[in-house]
Design goal:
The protein is α+β, with helices and mostly antiparallel strands and 316 residues long. The protein folds into 3 domains: 158 residues, Peptidoglycan recognition protein-like (Lysozyme-like, 3-Layer(aba) Sandwich), CATH 3.40.80; 54 residues; 55 residues. 14% of the residues lie in helices and 24% in strands. The chain has 5 helices and 18 strands. The strands form 4 sheets. Strands 1-5-4-7-3-8 form a 6-stranded mixed beta sheet. A hairpin with a 7-residue loop joins β11 and β12. The radius of gyration is 44 Å and the shape is elongated. The chain binds zinc ion. The site of zinc ion has 4 residues, from loops.
């Protein structure tokens, strides 16, 4: 069930008056008709509710511009007096505002027609409308005066106005110019590498660190105590160093050497087996990675005491 949201009333055609589905077809165009009379959209629809009418359309637009749906777009309305045209078309009956002559329609009807044509084209992916191609009229397919000179002479105008509606694309969202990352963000706690401001004017340090309250390009405004604190200075981000996230200085590796006097911190050997203390200290006699062999009395030829993890040793 699909029809234009512009339709404000639904007057379903009798099932005798159209074909379910679009056998061997599919929507590729719109066909414009006139009612050859002055009717409301509802009244036109009532005609198609007559089971012996043998005719229908998808939509009707009344004298007052009201749009009605009669046949859902996925079904084939019998409007164009031409089967091959019907299976490819969404059809619109338009009330005249006078009978005979050029069969004029009211401005209200015409305005609704333009909007409905635009909506049908958009929802069905018909692309740019071209009169005589995907915006068609009844007399292209059958020996009829429908839709009358008035509408037929304005088919280009209908196409242009409908295309204009559909080309009103939403305003493109301006793409923000990417700001080169400085690596700093508002809220960062920083200190200065050199105690000068953005213009190079010397500064006197008043805090251990400051907070970035604004960043604009390479210019950062620093505040004391908090992001909302008193402004301290504007500084070049190239002259800032973050506080608190610098890599913690790696603990100095315990640079043990053969011959060092050491004691285990915990009395376990390299494999975790408990040790019994037998000396006030031991000598490292071998080192291999974090494995140190300890000897008693002498690093070179004292009795081997244990192998110990160097992480578990301290110098004495
Ligand atoms: Zn017609």
């Amino acid at each position: 069930m699909s029809h234009s949201p512009l339709a404000t009333i639904s007057v379903p055609a009798n099932g005798n008056n159209y074909t379910y589905g679009r056998p061997n077809g599919g929507i590729t165009k719109i066909t414009v008709h006139h009612m050859a009379g002055v009717l409301s959209a509802e009244r036109c629809g009532q005609i198609f509710q007559n089971p012996n009418r043998h005719g229908s359309s998808h939509y009707g637009i009344g004298l007052d511009g009201e749009i009605a749906t009669y046949v859902e777009e996925e079904n084939t309305a019998w409007t164009d007096s031409n089967w091959d045209s019907n299976i490819h078309s969404v059809t619109i009956e338009n009330s005249n505002c006078d009978t005979g002559g050029d069969w004029p329609v009211s401005d209200a009807t015409f305005d609704s027609l333009v909007k409905l044509v635009a909506d049908i084209a958009k929802r069905n992916g018909l692309g740019t409308l071209v009169a005589g191609k995907n915006l068609t009229w009844h007399s292209m397919y059958a020996a009829t005066s429908c839709p009358g000179n008035y509408l037929r002479d304005r088919m280009n105008e209908i196409a242009e106005k409908a295309n204009a509606i559909n080309s009103q694309a939403p305003q493109p969202t301006p793409t923000p110019t990417p700001t080169p990352s400085t690596g700093f963000n508002v809220g960062d706690a920083v200190t200065l590498k050199n105690w000068v401001d953005y213009n190079g004017t010397p500064l006197r340090q008043t805090r251990d660190f400051y907070y970035i309250s604004q960043i604009n390009g390479d210019r950062a405004v620093l505040c004391a105590d908090s992001v909302d604190g008193a402004v301290y200075c504007a500084a070049n981000t190239n002259n800032l160093a973050k506080v608190g996230d610098a890599p913690a200085p790696a603990p100095a590796p315990k640079a043990f050497e053969i011959g060092d006097r050491v004691l285990p911190i915990n009395w376990v050997d390299f494999t975790g087996t408990p040790l019994r203390q037998t000396r006030d200290y031991y000598f490292i006699s071998q080192l291999a990675g974090n494995r140190a062999v300890l000897r008693a009395d002498d690093a070179n030829d004292g009795p081997i005491y244990a192998a110990v993890n160097t992480d578990n040793l301290r110098l004495v």
